[in-house]
């Protein structure tokens, strides 16, 4: 058997050894092992999940061979859970696999405590009534839950977790933490200039030895842009009563001053300084990054957060997620009521409490420094020295927060060393990128969605098909409860089923407060034509999405999606509905 580091080499580069260790400790329960469930577990087994338990009470029939690649002719008549489990075990013998031949709906009804033993439950192909019951069970047991369903050419994935905290959110784009507008004391040795009550200085290791007026072309073009910006900012401040550029015209003049320092047109370091100049005159503090984004992009981004009924006292919606890495994320998190920690608080909120205290005190309104610097045009010597300065500051900030964490744990009557040094260091490095996700109960969404959002989706051409499928997926469950079969499930004329499904869909919309709204005839016809079939191509796609979200939840890396994910296989589109 291959060594784990070799076996999982590619994924270790994405979520690291800590993420892989979390996966290998996780216990996953799958409800229904049709193609959607089987494809979900296949991805997790190949990724090295710790253990799986497959729950399905059905037998393999000939029709299953057409859409489930984990079954063959020898499985016909056998337990589906047993057959799928055996196949999955072959994919990775390091995974512990077992099966229970029982129908999930019966298990939900008769043995709700069964689910408390798992890290996460993946529930596939459940109807609305069972979804609501299972959601309540998993919430009470503090077990993560993901619903996945494929139905003809559509499907959905929905996460349900009371609270999910993310330290390593790993955003695709995030501004570097260089503190060009707020150098710490070690950077103030050479000269100073004021902006309000704040003193700004130059890099003590560089400023006394680097002259940006140096005429040597090699030295001039290898001065790091960090030093260039601080030097030019000092020069500007001296001629502007200690102030920084504030108006559009002054900012333009500042850039021109930077350009005037160039002695050749090929000096990339000065071009970098011009592009990064907005970082110098942006306001300081943890709201800094929102302002930087505005300055960099030239306009204000709107943070769109659905605010449906059922918000908690902190104003969180379907999922409290800020979609751009900004200081506003962090401000909301440190202001959250969970930051008032108790003996039952999670490690995350204990560290947030320490972070808040740090920001208020020696942080001077700033989060701990990350300690990394981006690539830039510079000599090797200058770059390494600059890197050391940032790393030293980051280490000092980490030690300060670590001490606070230990003190808080001690006050709470918990073991001071119960949060590892490595965990605190990762927290400090990612402090600006923390995320908190909270999801509504399925029952709340089903019975009391955001009417404003729902009506917006129904009238928005881009979302009308996705929300139509969402309504119809609920309508087919109600149809099945009333008529003991799904629309179009059996051969024969579909006119009656189409009429019944249309009436049922109108009823669903009416119950949701959307009187007079309808779903298009074409979509209703398509849903009947699907006949509740699980097509392998759609199941594989939905299973891929579901397994991706499982990995996010277990590793606590990357931000899980909010709302209900709807796949539209007709138009090849995927959309999230925040209801």
TrEMBL record:
Keyword rRNA processing tagged: no
One Pfam family hit: ThiF
Membrane-spanning segments: none
UniProt-listed Gene3D superfamilies: NAD(P)-binding Rossmann-like Domain
InterPro entries in alphabetical order: APP-BP1, ThiF/MoeB/HesA, ThiF_NAD_FAD-bd, Ubiquitin-activating_enz
Sections of the chain in a coiled coil: none
Record keywords: Ubl conjugation pathway
Family annotation (SUPFAM superfamilies): Activating enzymes of the ubiquitin-like proteins
Lineage top rank: taxon: Eukaryota
Record keyword Cytoplasm present: no
THIF-type NAD/FAD binding fold domain residues: 8-557
Job of this protein: Regulatory subunit of the dimeric E1 enzyme. E1 activates RUB1/NEDD8 by first adenylating its C-terminal glycine residue with ATP, thereafter linking this residue to the side chain of the catalytic cysteine, yielding a RUB1-ECR1 thioester and free AMP. E1 finally transfers RUB1 to the catalytic cysteine of RCE1.
Family from the record: Belongs to the ubiquitin-activating E1 family. ULA1 subfamily.
The protein's name in its UniProt record: NEDD8-activating enzyme E1 regulatory subunit
Protein source organism: Xanthoceras sorbifolium
Lineage: Eukaryota, Viridiplantae, Streptophyta, Embryophyta, Tracheophyta
């Amino acid at each position: 058997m291959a060594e784990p580091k070799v076996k999982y080499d590619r994924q270790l580069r994405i979520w690291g050894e800590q993420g892989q260790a979390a996966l290998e400790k996780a216990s996953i329960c799958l409800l229904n092992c049709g193609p959607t469930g089987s494809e979900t577990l296949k991805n997790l087994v190949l990724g090295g999940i710790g253990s799986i338990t497959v729950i399905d009470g059905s037998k393999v029939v000939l029709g299953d061979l057409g859409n489930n690649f984990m079954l063959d002719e020898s499985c016909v008549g056998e337990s589906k859970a047993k057959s799928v489990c055996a196949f999955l075990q072959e994919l990775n013998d390091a995974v512990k696999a077992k099966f229970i031949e029982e129908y999930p709906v019966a298990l939900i009804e008769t043995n709700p405590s069964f689910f408390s033993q798992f890290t996460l439950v993946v529930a596939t192909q459940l109807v609305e009534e069972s979804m609501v019951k299972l959601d309540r069970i998993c919430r009470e047991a503090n077990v993560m839950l993901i619903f996945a369903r494929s139905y003809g050419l559509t499907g959905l994935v929905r996460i349900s977790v009371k609270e999910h905290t993310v330290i390593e959110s790993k955003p695709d784009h995030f501004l570097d933490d260089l503190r060009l507008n707020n150098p710490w004391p070690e950077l103030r040795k050479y000269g100073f200039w004021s902006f309000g009550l704040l003193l700004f200085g130059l890099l003590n290791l560089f400023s006394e030895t680097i002259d940006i007026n140096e005429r040597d072309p090699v030295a001039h073009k290898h001065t790091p842009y960090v030093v260039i910006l601080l030097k030019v900012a000092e020069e500007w401040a001296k001629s502007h009563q200690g102030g920084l550029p504030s108006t559009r015209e002054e900012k333009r003049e500042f850039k021109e001053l930077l350009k005037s320092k160039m002695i050749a047109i090929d000096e990339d370091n000065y071009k970098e300084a011009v592009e990064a100049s907005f970082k110098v005159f942006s306001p300081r503090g943890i709201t800094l990054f929102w302002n930087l984004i505005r300055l960099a992009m030239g306009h204000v981004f709107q943070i769109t957060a659905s605010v449906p009924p059922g918000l908690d006292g902190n104003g969180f919606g379907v999922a409290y997620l800020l979609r751009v890495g900004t200081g506003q994320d962090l401000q909301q998190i440190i202001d959250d009521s969970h930051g008032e920690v108790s003996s039952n608080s999670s490690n995350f909120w204990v560290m947030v409490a320490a972070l808040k205290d740090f920001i208020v005190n020696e942080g001077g309104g700033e989060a701990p420094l990350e300690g990394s610097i981006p690539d830039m045009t510079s000599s090797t010597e200058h770059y390494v020295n600059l890197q050391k300065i940032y790393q030293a500051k980051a280490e000092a900030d980490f030690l300060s927060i670590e001490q606070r964490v230990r003190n808080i744990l001690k006050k709470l009557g918990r073991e001071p060393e119960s949060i590892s040094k490595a965990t605190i260091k990762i927290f400090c490095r990612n402090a600006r990128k923390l995320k908190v996700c909270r999801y509504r109960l399925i029952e709340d969404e089903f019975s009391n969605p955001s009417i404003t959002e729902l009506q917006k989706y129904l009238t928005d051409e881009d979302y009308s098909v996705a929300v139509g499928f969402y309504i119809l997926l609920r309508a087919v469950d109600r149809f099945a409860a009333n008529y003991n079969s799904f629309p179009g499930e059996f051969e024969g004329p579909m006119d009656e089923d189409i009429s019944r499904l249309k009436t049922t869909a109108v009823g669903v919309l009416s119950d949701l407060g959307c009187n007079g709204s309808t779903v298009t005839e074409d979509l209703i016809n398509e849903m009947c034509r699907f006949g509740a079939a699980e097509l392998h191509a759609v199941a594989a796609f939905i299973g891929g999405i579901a397994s991706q979200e499982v990995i996010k939840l277990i590793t606590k890396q990357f931000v899980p999606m909010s709302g209900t994910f709807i796949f539209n296989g007709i138009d090849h589109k995927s959309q999230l509905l925040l209801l």
